[in-house]
Amino acid sequence: MDTLDNLPERCVEPELPDPALGQAINDCIERLPKQPRRALSARMRDGCLPDREIALGLRMKVNTFLQNIVRARKLLADCLEWRGVRLGEILS
């Protein structure tokens, strides 16, 4: 029986529903503070790699990397909400 550790990781290429949403996401990512932006950008670019490897490539401890991801996601969500993007409608 496979455990979660033995299952292959997958990459998912998101398809954005409209160009305006894509532009809003990109604008909000650009507004993130440096470290959260670096962590999020690396995860989006190298999402098929384990977090440990991504963190190593950024010269961050894994915990610091994960904290930056959480911070980036929160700030990104706040920015998108401020721009009028209703995340509940997109995620459902």
- CATH architectural grouping: Orthogonal Bundle
The major sheet is characterized as:
none
Instruction: Say how many strands there are.
Output: 0
CATH superfamily: Winged helix-like DNA-binding domain superfamily/Winged helix DNA-binding domain
Name the helix and strand elements from N-terminus to C-terminus, one letter apiece. Answer: HHHHH
Radius of gyration: 15 Å
Shape: globular
**Could you name the CATH class?**
Mainly Alpha
Can you give the helix content as a percent range? 55-70%
- Give the overall average pLDDT: 86
Low-confidence stretches: none
Number of helices: 5
User: Strand-residue fraction?
Assistant: under 5%
What's the domain count? 1
Measured between the Cα atoms of the first and last residue, the distance is: 32 Å
Structural class: mainly alpha
CATH topology: Arc Repressor Mutant, subunit A
Structural commentary:
The protein is an all-alpha fold. The chain has one domain (18-91): Winged helix-like DNA-binding domain superfamily/Winged helix DNA-binding domain (Arc Repressor Mutant, subunit A, Orthogonal Bundle). Helix content is 64%, strand content 0%. The protein is built from five helices and no strands. It has helices at residues 19-31, 34-45, 51-58, 62-82, 87-91. The longest helix is centred in the C-terminal third of the chain and has 21 residues, at 62-82. The radius of gyration is 15 Å and the shape is globular. The model has no long low-confidence stretch (mean pLDDT 86).
